[in-house]
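Convert to structure. Protein one:
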Amino acid sequence: MTVYGIPNCDTVKKALTWFKNNHIDFEFHDFKKEGISAKKLNEWGKKVGLETFLNKKSTTWKEVDDNVKETITSIETAVPLLQEKTSIIKRPVIEDGKFLFFGFNEEAYREHFLG
């Protein structure tokens, strides 16, 4: 299983603590250090749709120029921005086989990992 995120994000910290407390092994992919591939973003977009993981509530999104925001109409147009500003991706991203989840939700984690 891979957890994607930013180490200083409070939501990511909650998720990592939950996994550690429940003795669930994971690899951590740091968006800031490792970035994210266009291939992976496109894969997520096909599985769940851009609106699921484009975090329009984030401070980073709010700082994006309105003219740029207007061009973000599909996963294809969003990929360059998501790669440049990974803080716009809803975090954490939990990828475990076919399970793909964005954000922290203890109930969803419990059902999938401890079910």
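Protein two, convert as well:
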Amino acid sequence: MLKQFGHQDIRVLNGDYQKWMLEGLPVTAELSNFTPTQYRVQSIDDSLRVLYGEVKASIERPDRVLLDVRTIQEYRGEHFLMQPPKNTELAGHIPGAIHIEHTLTLNEDGTFKTFDELQVLYDKHGITPDKEVFSYCAIGGRSGYIWFVLKYLLGYPNVRNYDGSWNEWSRLPDAAIEK
């Protein structure tokens, strides 16, 4: 999202809070106080996201990959947004989507797996740099993370995030759903 709004200098912490604490790095209980500033959005880069119509048109296209990064329970239709579906909620996945849960890109300590490990993970599922990859999850957060992994850690040139994700797809009357 920061890239979409034109930010160029973005940093990602390699590891989580637990790793930070294990390494004895500094933390504080005090609230941060920042000087207010005028924020100006740069030109919005819509080339980083994909919308419903293009996702729908991509089903069964061999040059594109629909990548579902949710839990296996969400992918199978056992959960909707990480909970059992209620009466009006449709669960499952986009037809033809490949499932690779987002957590498989991380080591036990919350750091990213190596380039080689990530490459093997995606290659064995046919997700290669020569294809256009559309990642999705429930509401776009986990798929945004995978966009980063594919784009910046693996260098895939054609990756976009379907940020409408399952929350949008499952609510549209003409969207096909597989379980």
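Residues 141-153 form the longest helix (13 residues). Helices lie at 17-22, 52-58, 72-76, 115-123, 141-153, 165-169.
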